[in-house]
Amino acid sequence: xxxxxxxxxxxxxxxxxxxxxxxxxxxxxxxxxxxxxxxxxxxxxxxxxxxxxxxxxxxxxxxxxxxxxxxxxxxxxxxxxxxxxxxxxxxxxxxxxxxxxxxxxxxxxxxxxxxxxxxxxxxxxxxxxxxxxxxxxxxxxxxxxxxxxxxxxxxxxxxxxxxxxxxxxxx
Length: 171
Known about the structure:
Elements: H1 4-17, H2 24-36, H3 43-46, H4 64-78, H5 81-98, H6 137-158
């Protein structure tokens, strides 16, 4: 998987451009959490569900259908079609980024129509270790690679906004 570094970048980007301003940092934290939602499937390991199973890691929760459902739930709760679109697109970035990693079994993008797992032909992101393995030298290497790869997204998301000052109109 890509780590919080990569997925979180898109949560911040969605907060910057996808939602109205107002409590932006609270919204940003919520969208970063939402960008990580598909990885809730790591509980499958603790439940004894095999990795390659439809509900294993990178299975059903990494599908485009899951992204639509998650976006739909947020949009319905907020009564906002725009928020539905933003959140569905944000959750969909998760499996697309995971398909760019160099490890694992791929992502089940088209579940439930197909259990086939997919990778991108171009896989520049090193796969992130899961759990405590993230706190290793391999985890540090992944973080540094993702910071480099996702730097343009962070710049776009965090670049300071220009303050608009109103000047009195000439009479």
